[in-house]
Design goal:
Rossmann fold, 3 domains, DNA-binding, disordered C terminus, alpha/beta, DNA recombination, two-stranded antiparallel sheet, binds adenosine-5'-triphosphate, five-stranded parallel sheet, Helicase, Ruva Protein, domain 3, about 15% strand, globular, Arc Repressor Mutant, subunit A
Length: about 350
Protein backbone atom coordinates (compact mmCIF):
# COMPACT_ATOMS: atom_id res chain seq x y z
CA UNK A 1 0.00 0.00 0.00
CA UNK A 2 1.21 3.52 -0.76
CA UNK A 3 2.49 5.65 2.08
CA UNK A 4 -0.34 7.70 3.55
CA UNK A 5 -0.48 11.23 2.18
CA UNK A 6 -0.24 14.38 4.25
CA UNK A 7 -3.87 15.14 3.56
CA UNK A 8 -5.20 11.67 4.37
CA UNK A 9 -2.68 10.51 6.94
CA UNK A 10 -3.53 8.85 10.23
CA UNK A 11 -2.31 11.18 12.90
CA UNK A 12 0.12 10.66 15.74
CA UNK A 13 -1.33 10.92 19.27
CA UNK A 14 0.34 14.32 19.72
CA UNK A 15 -1.20 15.57 16.47
CA UNK A 16 -4.59 14.27 17.54
CA UNK A 17 -4.26 16.09 20.87
CA UNK A 18 -3.46 19.28 18.98
CA UNK A 19 -6.41 18.74 16.67
CA UNK A 20 -8.69 18.23 19.68
CA UNK A 21 -7.39 21.46 21.23
CA UNK A 22 -8.37 23.34 18.08
CA UNK A 23 -11.98 22.10 18.09
CA UNK A 24 -14.58 24.79 18.60
CA UNK A 25 -16.66 24.09 21.73
CA UNK A 26 -19.81 26.09 20.95
CA UNK A 27 -21.99 26.64 17.91
CA UNK A 28 -21.00 30.32 17.85
CA UNK A 29 -17.34 29.40 17.36
CA UNK A 30 -18.14 26.91 14.60
CA UNK A 31 -17.19 28.55 11.32
CA UNK A 32 -19.26 28.19 8.12
CA UNK A 33 -22.04 25.66 7.42
CA UNK A 34 -24.49 28.49 8.08
CA UNK A 35 -27.61 26.55 7.11
CA UNK A 36 -26.82 23.47 9.24
CA UNK A 37 -25.71 25.68 12.13
CA UNK A 38 -28.93 27.73 12.11
CA UNK A 39 -31.18 24.68 11.81
CA UNK A 40 -29.32 22.79 14.50
CA UNK A 41 -29.36 25.78 16.79
CA UNK A 42 -33.16 25.88 16.47
CA UNK A 43 -33.52 22.15 17.16
CA UNK A 44 -31.38 22.47 20.30
CA UNK A 45 -33.04 25.65 21.51
CA UNK A 46 -36.52 24.10 21.12
CA UNK A 47 -35.54 20.98 23.08
CA UNK A 48 -34.02 23.12 25.81
CA UNK A 49 -37.24 25.15 26.03
CA UNK A 50 -39.31 21.98 26.25
CA UNK A 51 -36.93 20.51 28.79
CA UNK A 52 -36.61 17.47 26.54
CA UNK A 53 -33.71 15.48 25.13
CA UNK A 54 -32.83 16.73 21.65
CA UNK A 55 -34.06 14.81 18.62
CA UNK A 56 -31.67 12.37 16.93
CA UNK A 57 -29.32 14.10 14.49
CA UNK A 58 -27.71 12.68 11.36
CA UNK A 59 -24.66 14.47 9.97
CA UNK A 60 -23.37 13.57 6.55
CA UNK A 61 -20.50 14.78 4.44
CA UNK A 62 -16.89 14.07 3.55
CA UNK A 63 -14.31 13.49 6.33
CA UNK A 64 -12.85 16.37 8.28
CA UNK A 65 -15.69 18.85 7.80
CA UNK A 66 -16.69 18.92 11.46
CA UNK A 67 -19.13 16.07 12.18
CA UNK A 68 -17.35 14.96 15.38
CA UNK A 69 -16.92 18.59 16.39
CA UNK A 70 -20.66 19.20 15.93
CA UNK A 71 -21.52 16.12 18.00
CA UNK A 72 -19.34 17.48 20.80
CA UNK A 73 -20.97 20.88 20.44
CA UNK A 74 -24.45 19.32 20.63
CA UNK A 75 -23.53 17.62 23.90
CA UNK A 76 -21.96 20.84 25.19
CA UNK A 77 -24.94 22.99 24.21
CA UNK A 78 -27.34 20.49 25.82
CA UNK A 79 -25.11 20.30 28.87
CA UNK A 80 -25.10 16.53 28.46
CA UNK A 81 -22.38 13.91 28.65
CA UNK A 82 -21.07 12.50 25.37
CA UNK A 83 -20.36 8.88 24.51
CA UNK A 84 -18.37 8.17 21.37
CA UNK A 85 -18.35 4.96 19.34
CA UNK A 86 -18.38 4.00 15.69
CA UNK A 87 -20.10 1.66 13.25
CA UNK A 88 -17.07 -0.57 12.70
CA UNK A 89 -16.69 -1.02 16.49
CA UNK A 90 -20.26 -2.36 16.73
CA UNK A 91 -20.22 -5.68 14.96
CA UNK A 92 -22.76 -7.52 17.14
CA UNK A 93 -26.10 -6.43 18.50
CA UNK A 94 -24.65 -7.19 21.95
CA UNK A 95 -21.97 -4.50 21.49
CA UNK A 96 -24.67 -1.93 20.89
CA UNK A 97 -26.86 -3.26 23.73
CA UNK A 98 -23.92 -2.82 26.12
CA UNK A 99 -23.50 0.82 25.09
CA UNK A 100 -27.21 1.66 25.08
CA UNK A 101 -27.94 0.04 28.43
CA UNK A 102 -25.21 2.07 30.12
CA UNK A 103 -26.34 5.48 28.82
CA UNK A 104 -27.53 8.02 31.33
CA UNK A 105 -30.61 10.20 30.82
CA UNK A 106 -30.08 12.89 28.16
CA UNK A 107 -26.67 11.53 27.15
CA UNK A 108 -25.52 12.18 23.59
CA UNK A 109 -24.34 9.05 21.80
CA UNK A 110 -22.11 9.80 18.81
CA UNK A 111 -21.83 6.97 16.31
CA UNK A 112 -19.25 7.78 13.65
CA UNK A 113 -19.38 5.88 10.34
CA UNK A 114 -22.85 4.69 11.26
CA UNK A 115 -23.25 3.16 7.78
CA UNK A 116 -20.68 0.52 8.72
CA UNK A 117 -22.64 -0.99 11.60
CA UNK A 118 -23.73 -4.63 11.31
CA UNK A 119 -27.30 -5.38 10.23
CA UNK A 120 -28.49 -6.92 13.57
CA UNK A 121 -27.08 -3.93 15.48
CA UNK A 122 -28.79 -1.59 13.03
CA UNK A 123 -32.13 -3.29 13.64
CA UNK A 124 -31.68 -2.99 17.39
CA UNK A 125 -30.94 0.69 16.91
CA UNK A 126 -34.29 1.28 15.12
CA UNK A 127 -36.23 0.33 18.23
CA UNK A 128 -33.86 2.11 20.59
CA UNK A 129 -34.18 5.36 18.64
CA UNK A 130 -37.95 5.21 18.33
CA UNK A 131 -39.16 3.67 21.58
CA UNK A 132 -36.08 3.96 23.83
CA UNK A 133 -36.25 0.23 24.32
CA UNK A 134 -34.22 -2.78 23.24
CA UNK A 135 -34.91 -6.50 23.28
CA UNK A 136 -32.03 -8.43 24.77
CA UNK A 137 -32.06 -11.97 23.39
CA UNK A 138 -31.06 -14.57 25.92
CA UNK A 139 -30.27 -18.14 24.86
CA UNK A 140 -30.12 -19.64 21.40
CA UNK A 141 -32.37 -21.43 18.92
CA UNK A 142 -35.87 -22.51 19.99
CA UNK A 143 -35.20 -21.68 23.65
CA UNK A 144 -34.18 -18.07 22.97
CA UNK A 145 -36.22 -15.40 24.71
CA UNK A 146 -36.27 -11.65 24.22
CA UNK A 147 -36.17 -9.61 27.42
CA UNK A 148 -37.32 -6.02 26.87
CA UNK A 149 -35.13 -3.38 28.45
CA UNK A 150 -36.20 0.25 28.81
CA UNK A 151 -33.58 2.89 28.04
CA UNK A 152 -33.35 6.43 29.32
CA UNK A 153 -34.09 9.06 26.63
CA UNK A 154 -30.88 9.87 24.76
CA UNK A 155 -29.84 11.75 21.63
CA UNK A 156 -28.18 9.79 18.89
CA UNK A 157 -25.84 11.75 16.65
CA UNK A 158 -24.95 9.60 13.66
CA UNK A 159 -22.21 10.59 11.24
CA UNK A 160 -21.68 9.20 7.80
CA UNK A 161 -19.60 10.00 4.76
CA UNK A 162 -22.16 8.10 2.67
CA UNK A 163 -25.74 9.08 3.55
CA UNK A 164 -26.90 7.17 0.47
CA UNK A 165 -25.71 3.89 2.02
CA UNK A 166 -27.95 4.20 5.08
CA UNK A 167 -31.08 2.10 4.90
CA UNK A 168 -34.27 4.17 4.66
CA UNK A 169 -35.73 3.01 8.01
CA UNK A 170 -32.58 4.19 9.81
CA UNK A 171 -32.42 7.52 7.97
CA UNK A 172 -36.11 8.17 8.70
CA UNK A 173 -35.61 7.84 12.43
CA UNK A 174 -33.41 10.92 12.61
CA UNK A 175 -35.39 14.05 13.44
CA UNK A 176 -32.81 16.27 11.79
CA UNK A 177 -30.34 15.64 8.99
CA UNK A 178 -27.55 18.08 8.24
CA UNK A 179 -25.38 17.77 5.19
CA UNK A 180 -21.98 19.42 5.61
CA UNK A 181 -20.55 21.13 2.55
CA UNK A 182 -16.93 21.88 1.70
CA UNK A 183 -15.80 25.23 3.11
CA UNK A 184 -14.96 28.27 1.02
CA UNK A 185 -11.44 29.73 1.10
CA UNK A 186 -12.79 32.69 3.13
CA UNK A 187 -14.32 30.34 5.72
CA UNK A 188 -11.11 28.35 5.96
CA UNK A 189 -9.21 31.59 6.53
CA UNK A 190 -11.43 32.16 9.57
CA UNK A 191 -10.76 28.61 10.83
CA UNK A 192 -7.03 29.23 10.36
CA UNK A 193 -7.08 32.62 12.09
CA UNK A 194 -8.70 31.05 15.11
CA UNK A 195 -6.22 28.15 15.14
CA UNK A 196 -3.21 30.46 14.65
CA UNK A 197 -4.42 32.46 17.65
CA UNK A 198 -4.62 29.30 19.76
CA UNK A 199 -1.17 28.16 18.55
CA UNK A 200 0.32 31.62 19.08
CA UNK A 201 1.45 31.83 15.45
CA UNK A 202 2.01 35.04 13.48
CA UNK A 203 0.59 34.74 9.98
CA UNK A 204 -0.15 37.54 7.48
CA UNK A 205 -3.53 37.75 5.71
CA UNK A 206 -1.93 36.57 2.48
CA UNK A 207 -0.32 33.72 4.42
CA UNK A 208 -3.76 32.59 5.63
CA UNK A 209 -5.13 32.80 2.09
CA UNK A 210 -2.26 30.68 0.77
CA UNK A 211 -2.84 27.91 3.32
CA UNK A 212 -6.65 28.11 2.97
CA UNK A 213 -6.42 27.83 -0.82
CA UNK A 214 -4.51 24.55 -0.52
CA UNK A 215 -6.79 23.02 2.13
CA UNK A 216 -9.32 21.31 -0.17
CA UNK A 217 -12.29 22.95 1.48
CA UNK A 218 -11.63 20.99 4.69
CA UNK A 219 -10.91 22.45 8.15
CA UNK A 220 -9.06 19.37 9.34
CA UNK A 221 -6.67 19.70 6.41
CA UNK A 222 -6.38 23.46 6.93
CA UNK A 223 -5.33 22.92 10.55
CA UNK A 224 -2.95 20.16 9.60
CA UNK A 225 -1.29 22.24 6.90
CA UNK A 226 -1.00 25.13 9.35
CA UNK A 227 0.87 22.88 11.77
CA UNK A 228 3.24 21.79 9.00
CA UNK A 229 3.82 25.42 8.03
CA UNK A 230 4.50 26.16 11.68
CA UNK A 231 7.19 23.42 11.77
CA UNK A 232 8.75 24.79 8.59
CA UNK A 233 8.80 28.34 9.95
CA UNK A 234 10.35 27.18 13.22
CA UNK A 235 13.15 25.29 11.48
CA UNK A 236 13.81 28.20 9.09
CA UNK A 237 13.73 30.76 11.90
CA UNK A 238 10.81 32.68 10.37
CA UNK A 239 8.71 34.62 12.86
CA UNK A 240 5.94 35.87 10.63
CA UNK A 241 4.49 33.54 8.01
CA UNK A 242 3.63 35.27 4.75
CA UNK A 243 2.30 33.83 1.49
CA UNK A 244 5.79 32.99 0.22
CA UNK A 245 6.77 31.13 3.37
CA UNK A 246 3.45 29.25 3.47
CA UNK A 247 3.75 28.37 -0.22
CA UNK A 248 7.35 27.18 0.11
CA UNK A 249 6.49 25.06 3.16
CA UNK A 250 3.52 23.41 1.48
CA UNK A 251 5.40 22.83 -1.77
CA UNK A 252 7.88 20.90 0.31
CA UNK A 253 5.08 18.72 1.67
CA UNK A 254 3.88 18.10 -1.91
CA UNK A 255 0.60 19.94 -1.47
CA UNK A 256 0.20 21.87 -4.69
CA UNK A 257 -1.34 25.28 -5.29
CA UNK A 258 -4.70 23.71 -6.03
CA UNK A 259 -4.57 21.70 -2.80
CA UNK A 260 -3.95 18.35 -4.46
CA UNK A 261 -1.63 16.07 -2.55
CA UNK A 262 0.25 12.97 -3.57
CA UNK A 263 -2.84 10.72 -3.40
CA UNK A 264 -4.96 13.07 -5.53
CA UNK A 265 -2.26 13.48 -8.13
CA UNK A 266 -1.62 9.71 -8.05
CA UNK A 267 -5.30 9.02 -8.78
CA UNK A 268 -5.40 11.59 -11.57
CA UNK A 269 -2.20 10.49 -13.21
CA UNK A 270 -3.18 6.78 -13.01
CA UNK A 271 -6.48 7.67 -14.64
CA UNK A 272 -4.73 9.57 -17.42
CA UNK A 273 -1.58 7.50 -18.00
CA UNK A 274 -2.71 3.93 -17.18
CA UNK A 275 -6.34 4.02 -18.31
CA UNK A 276 -6.25 6.53 -21.15
CA UNK A 277 -8.42 8.98 -19.20
CA UNK A 278 -11.04 6.31 -18.34
CA UNK A 279 -13.77 5.31 -17.92
CA UNK A 280 -12.41 3.02 -15.23
CA UNK A 281 -14.05 1.40 -12.19
CA UNK A 282 -13.30 2.58 -8.68
CA UNK A 283 -11.66 -0.64 -7.44
CA UNK A 284 -9.38 -0.87 -10.47
CA UNK A 285 -8.33 2.72 -9.97
CA UNK A 286 -7.75 2.11 -6.25
CA UNK A 287 -5.55 -0.92 -6.97
CA UNK A 288 -3.53 1.14 -9.45
CA UNK A 289 -2.67 3.67 -6.73
CA UNK A 290 -2.27 1.08 -3.95
CA UNK A 291 -5.11 2.42 -1.82
CA UNK A 292 -8.41 1.12 -0.45
CA UNK A 293 -11.37 1.92 -2.75
CA UNK A 294 -13.03 3.66 0.22
CA UNK A 295 -10.05 5.99 0.67
CA UNK A 296 -10.06 6.91 -3.01
CA UNK A 297 -13.83 7.37 -2.95
CA UNK A 298 -14.15 9.36 0.26
CA UNK A 299 -10.83 11.21 0.44
CA UNK A 300 -9.56 11.94 -3.07
CA UNK A 301 -12.60 11.70 -5.30
CA UNK A 302 -15.03 14.23 -3.78
CA UNK A 303 -12.43 16.96 -4.12
CA UNK A 304 -11.29 15.93 -7.60
CA UNK A 305 -14.90 15.87 -8.81
CA UNK A 306 -15.67 19.14 -7.11
CA UNK A 307 -12.62 20.76 -8.71
CA UNK A 308 -13.78 19.54 -12.12
CA UNK A 309 -10.71 17.36 -12.55
CA UNK A 310 -12.57 14.05 -12.56
CA UNK A 311 -16.00 13.03 -13.78
CA UNK A 312 -18.20 10.09 -12.80
CA UNK A 313 -20.13 8.35 -15.54
CA UNK A 314 -22.26 5.18 -15.51
CA UNK A 315 -19.24 3.34 -16.94
CA UNK A 316 -16.68 4.61 -14.42
CA UNK A 317 -14.38 7.49 -13.59
CA UNK A 318 -13.02 9.76 -16.29
CA UNK A 319 -10.39 12.51 -16.40
CA UNK A 320 -11.57 15.93 -17.60
CA UNK A 321 -9.51 18.26 -19.85
CA UNK A 322 -8.64 20.22 -16.70
CA UNK A 323 -6.96 17.12 -15.27
CA UNK A 324 -4.63 16.93 -18.27
CA UNK A 325 -3.88 20.63 -17.95
CA UNK A 326 -3.21 20.31 -14.23
CA UNK A 327 -0.75 17.48 -14.85
CA UNK A 328 0.89 19.50 -17.61
CA UNK A 329 -0.14 17.01 -20.30
CA UNK A 330 -1.66 17.71 -23.72
CA UNK A 331 -5.43 17.14 -23.88
CA UNK A 332 -6.09 14.25 -26.29
CA UNK A 333 -8.63 14.82 -29.05
CA UNK A 334 -10.48 11.53 -28.49
CA UNK A 335 -10.88 11.53 -24.72
CA UNK A 336 -13.98 10.00 -23.04
CA UNK A 337 -15.13 13.27 -21.47
CA UNK A 338 -16.21 14.58 -24.85
CA UNK A 339 -19.26 12.28 -24.87
CA UNK A 340 -19.93 11.71 -21.18
CA UNK A 341 -18.82 14.72 -19.15
CA UNK A 342 -22.06 16.49 -19.92
CA UNK A 343 -23.98 13.55 -18.47
CA UNK A 344 -22.46 13.82 -15.01
CA UNK A 345 -20.70 17.06 -14.26
CA UNK A 346 -18.72 17.76 -11.09
CA UNK A 347 -20.78 17.29 -7.95
CA UNK A 348 -23.74 15.90 -9.88
CA UNK A 349 -26.15 13.94 -7.69
CA UNK A 350 -26.63 11.23 -10.26
CA UNK A 351 -22.96 10.53 -10.00
CA UNK A 352 -23.40 9.50 -6.38
CA UNK A 353 -24.36 5.88 -6.99
CA UNK A 354 -21.84 3.10 -6.80
CA UNK A 355 -20.33 2.73 -10.19
CA UNK A 356 -18.31 -0.38 -9.61
N1 LIG B 1 -16.55 24.66 11.36
C1 LIG B 1 -15.37 24.53 11.95
N2 LIG B 1 -14.78 25.57 12.54
C2 LIG B 1 -13.55 25.46 13.09
N3 LIG B 1 -12.85 24.31 13.12
C3 LIG B 1 -13.40 23.23 12.57
C4 LIG B 1 -14.69 23.28 11.97
N4 LIG B 1 -14.99 22.06 11.51
C5 LIG B 1 -13.96 21.27 11.78
N5 LIG B 1 -12.99 21.97 12.42
C6 LIG B 1 -11.69 21.45 12.82
O1 LIG B 1 -11.36 20.37 11.96
C7 LIG B 1 -10.98 19.22 12.71
C8 LIG B 1 -11.73 18.02 12.15
O2 LIG B 1 -13.09 18.11 12.47
P1 LIG B 1 -13.95 16.80 12.85
O3 LIG B 1 -13.09 15.76 13.53
O4 LIG B 1 -15.13 17.27 13.57
O5 LIG B 1 -14.35 16.27 11.42
P2 LIG B 1 -15.27 15.03 11.04
O6 LIG B 1 -16.22 15.50 9.99
O7 LIG B 1 -15.83 14.40 12.25
O8 LIG B 1 -14.25 14.06 10.37
P3 LIG B 1 -14.31 12.46 10.32
O9 LIG B 1 -15.55 12.13 9.59
O10 LIG B 1 -13.06 12.16 9.55
O11 LIG B 1 -14.26 11.99 11.74
C9 LIG B 1 -11.27 19.53 14.17
O12 LIG B 1 -10.11 19.43 14.93
C10 LIG B 1 -11.69 20.97 14.24
O13 LIG B 1 -10.71 21.71 14.91
Amino acid sequence: MAEPSLVASQEEPEERALEAALRPKFLDEFVGQGRVRRQLSLVLEASRMRGRTADHVLLSGPPGLGKTTLAMIIAGEMNAPLRISSGPAIQHAGDLAAILSSLSEGEVLFLDEIHRMSRPAEEMLYMAMEDFRVDIVVGKGAGATAIPLDLPPFTLVGATTRAGLLPGPLRDRFGFTGHLEFYTVEELELVLRRSAGLLDLKVTSAGFTEVAGRSRGTPRIANRLLRRVRDWALVHGIEQIDARAAGAALDMYEVDARGLDRLDRGVLSALVTKFGGGPVGLSTLAIAVGEEPETVETVAEPYLVREGLMGRTPRGRIATPLAYEHLGLPVPASAPFAESATLFGPGSDEADGSLD
